[in-house]
Amino acid sequence: MTEGNDEKSAQKLARRHLRIMHACEKGATGVYWGHRLVASLLFRDLIPQLTEMHGHEVEHFAVFGGLMRARGVRPVVVPTLWCAGGIAYGVLTALGGRRAVWRSTAVIEGIVERELTEAARFFKGRDREVHRAIEVILQDELAHKTQGEANSPGEQAVDKFVTPLAKAGAQASKTFAERL
Ligand SMILES: [Fe+2]
Ligand SMILES: [Fe+2]
Question: What is the CATH number of domain 2-179?
């Protein structure tokens, strides 16, 4: 009886992890879309790097989507909402300048790294395919974080606006994914 309950709660947790990662990847595609939109007007030199990272997020979203379909896990209701939220956030932060784009990237990707590390720990020994996919995706996210940090060294005034906004945005993305 207890074992059955443990198994049920583990399955519930697995679905929750997948749904959150999937929705947040959709949010990330929106953030980079928003950053690219503003960059195309104000700082075009950032476009190659932003486009590459955007491409990774699109791939990550597809990978989690495939894993969920194969396991019969439903996605969040209307993932496009995460994309829309990401775009609004991405445009707003990018209007703070190129430093804001990179600081936002560093903060958000740091949060993503922690989230994926926790998920990888959960899936290790439970689901080899999901675990492996997270490990591969983590490498991209770490590279994104490193790029963000390298391009926004030290502290500047704009960080006071970007850092709390990035944390709140990432938290909102996760909270809604848990409920919808
Ligand atoms: Fe990603
Ligand atoms: Fe990323």
Answer: 1.20.1260.10
The ligand minimizing its distance to the Cα of 116 is 1
Share of the chain above pLDDT 90, in %: 83
- Share of residues in the chain with pLDDT > 70 (%): 99
**29: Cβ contacts below 8 Å, ≥ 6 apart:** 54, 57, 58, 61, 83, 86
Within 10 Å of residue 55's Cβ, how many Cβ atoms? Answer: 13
Task: For residue 97, report the distance from its CA to the centre of ligand 1, in Å.
Answer: 23
Residues 6+ apart with CB under 8 A from 49: 147
User: How far, in Å, from the CA of 51 to the mean position of ligand 2?
Assistant: 12
Q: What distance in angstroms lies between residue 106's CA and the mean position of ligand 2's atoms? A: 9
Assess whether pLDDT exceeds 80 at residue 63. Answer: yes
Ligand approaching nearest to the C-alpha of 146 = 2
